[in-house]
Each structure stands twice: as structure tokens, then as C-alpha cells.
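Quick one, T. Sequence first:
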Amino acid sequence: MVDILLVALNSKWIHASFGVRYLRANLRELRERSAIAEFEVSRRATDVAEAVLAASPRIVGIGVYVWNAVLVRDLVHVLKRVAPHVTLVLGGPEVSHETEAQEVCRLADHVVTGEADLAFADLCRAILQGGKPPHVVAAPTPDPAALALPYDEYTDEDLRHRMVYVEASRGCPFTCEFCLSSLDDGVRRVPLEPFLAAMDRLLARGLRTFKFVDRTFNLHVPTVQAILRFFHARQCEGLFLHFELIPDRLPDSLKPDIAAFPPGMVQFEVGIQTFDEAVAARIARKQDAARIEENLRWLRAHTGVHLHTDLIVGLPGEDRATFARGFDRLWALRPQEIQVGILKRLRGAPISHHDHAWGMVYHPEPPYELLRNSVLSFDAMQEMKRFARYWDLVANSGRFPATLELMLAAPSPFEAFAAFGRDVHAWTGATHGIALGRLGELLFRHLCETRALDRDAAGRALAADWRHGGRHEWPEWLQPWMVAGDDDRRHLQQPVNRRALRQHRHLGAGASSQPTDPQPRSARTP
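C-alpha cells:
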């Protein structure tokens, strides 16, 4: 039995909820009267309710996000019917805006809007003392220095098997209208000394994958340098660091610290979103496109950083042609990954003020993806969603670097891959459940039939990719290009850190992993 049960409904089991751990750490004297219960969104609401009620809680706190909003809605319906005596408290970004318009908020006993780290604890105290707090509690923005850090709430099981999130700052200084961070009032930094001490404890306990959720990691150079130097001094087998980078901000003073890490140990998530200046201005996204290109070139030429870059389909005024030009421009810089995202209308995000002018039509259910607008029809959006999925399977997976180079050697790499996407959809009607061998066969068929490329060149490229992936079971159609040793498992090398498996595949992946500048890295200075 517990008085307070913090419930996290995660998109996958591997994602350990950061929010509920912050909440529990800041319950202070109530912490020992609380517990955390985590579930995947694939679970049925009735099964989650059964597990929740087995703990006999007096208060149930649930974090609501775009990825779990439907399950939360169903769970709240069940709990209010079978256990009306339990006090339900909702929080999180999905219920922090347009609160009164949401049925789930009306059903809940209390809703905390904003960052609830301290406000949730105050609310629980009032409830347990018999008070009658308001239905909606607007949480004051907390000073990170006043918060207890959550890292001791991660269990040893979490550290061994799950994705662990950390943050050195909160907030964002930019005003991109598609993002809820545009509503933030500046950036607040976590005090560095206790933060690094907590990171040291996590390392000592065996954590090797650190995923920083800071929206603007490289904003304050002294803090960035301190963190990078901290981890560089503690390099160990399997260490993997993920940071979100402001793409046009890479001062020279930071470059030696970035270049000092060995290949594959650091990943930068670089949100570019659009290269079209008019579109960027329309959504209040301030960025220097030329500087972005310069910085990405430097990172590819002088460092071993894995670059995960982002583009968004459906921004107001960006049609298929302008998106294609931006995609081709980004591909020319050879990041290891290009994540093609679909615009979502997040509750509270200012992007909604373009709805009328650009005919923005979104799906009414979470995650509120764009269905069409005045420059992209519904059919065009459907094709772009399939493009994003197939690109993830072929390119971002790191499984087909040589084949991808062959396929995209065309005036427009975007159009070349779009043609492949149309073939896959016509031949299979599927975007999921495509086995790896089947995917390779579809690539081979497309290159030989649709593109009319040399059959032997296509076979050699796919064989090189099969070999690079260490696969010993070769499909029959690929066997003509096998060489001695291809069916020998002894040459396989598995990465130490399985949570960075995709990034590991990109290491030494051939032409697609090389800088566009042909001079080898060893001949340069940082």
C-alpha cells in the first residue's frame, strides 16, 4: 500500500520516465509514502487500472503527453468508474494548455499545469491533510536550484537496460511556433557542481548511455565545456552521450572539446526543420542556414560525432518542391541520419494561428499530425509519411549505406528515394513488418527494374551492405555476390552498448559516412 502512486505510461519499455522520478524526488517528506509504476502504451486501460489499484493508493498522479493521451483518457474513465474514492491528479504538457476544453481534465480531481516538480508535492500535502485544493493548479516555474535531483530514483535495472534521461538546463530562448518550448521564459541552468556529482554516481553505478534532454545544450559555452570535459576524463567502454544542438551556434572555443571524443561516443541531435528562409521566418524560427551548413561540414570533417538531423514536413507554406530542395541540401552534408518528421499541432503551440491562412487540417486525435494544408494535399501527405518510414528503415538504420549511395546518385536524392517509396507501397502496401531480407530484395528490384541500373552494380552494393552488417545468412537472390567468408559468423563484432546499436552501424559504413571534403580526417587539424 502507498499513499501516492506516480504512474508513467511510456511509449516503450526502454524509456524510463524522467518526469515521475523528478516528482518523487521532490516529494521530500512524502517520498517514502510514494511509489512509481510504469507501463507501456500498448497495455489495455483495464489492465493498467488493475495494477494501479493493487497498490491501494490514495492519490494517483499521471503524466499526460502526446504519445499517451489516448491511454490516459481511457484509464481515467476506468478509474473514476471502479475507484471513485481515489484522487486522480493529471499533469504534463498535454493538459497544461487548453485545459478546460479537455474531457479528461474535467474527469480528473485535479490538474497541475506547467512544471509540477514542487506544485505536485504541495498539492499532495493539502489532499492528505484533508484540504480542498482547486481543481486546476497553475504551477509556478521552479528554479532548478530549488529542486532535488532525480537520478537516485533510477534503479540498477534502469541503468542496465533502459534509456536514462538527464538535464543540465530547462527552457529555450527561441520562439519556433511548432514547439511548446517557444512559450518558455528563457533558459534556467541546473547548478553544475551537484549535477556533475550526480553524473559521477550514475557512471559509478554502471550507466553508459546518457541522453540529455536540454533543448539548447550548446547555448552556454562554459557549461558545455565543463560537461564535455567531465565525460571525456571518464571515458569508458560503451559510453554514449546524446545532446540536442543549436545548429548555427558552434563557437571555435568549443570545437577542440567536441573533436576530442572518439568516433561514435557522442551524438548530436540537430533540429534544422526547414532550409526555406520564408517558411522559417513565418514560424518565427531564427537560424542562419549558411552557418548551419558550415557547422555540419566541420563536424563531419573533423569529429567522430554521430549527427541525427531533423526536418519537418507540413510547415505552413512549404510545399513538396521546397521540402525536396531542403532535403537534398541536407543530404549533401552527409549527416548519418535525417529524421523526417510530420508537423503536429501540439496543444498550446502558436503554430495554430496559421490554420486559416494556410488551410492547416490536423488529425483530431493525438499526436495531432497534419493531414493536409493548402500546398500539400492529403495524398501528398500520405506519400510523405511513407517516405519518412521507408527512409528510417533504409537510411537511418545504417543497414544499407552502399545501396543508398547508389540509389541517391541522381539530380535529386529526394526524388530518387521517393520513387523507391512509391514502388514499395505499390508492391507491398506495407510500411511496417517488412523483414530485412524482403527489404533488401525490394531495393534490388527497384534499382534493377525502375532505375534500370546495372544488375551487377546493384548486387555488389547490397552484398557490401550485407557484409558490413555482419549478416551470415544470405538470401538466395544475393548469393551470386557472396565471397569467401561471408557465411562465417566468426567475423561478427557486436557493439558494447546495445542502446547505441543503430549509431554503431553507421561507423565505417562506407561512402555515406565520409565527409564531403575528400581530404582524410587524419590530415586535418581540429
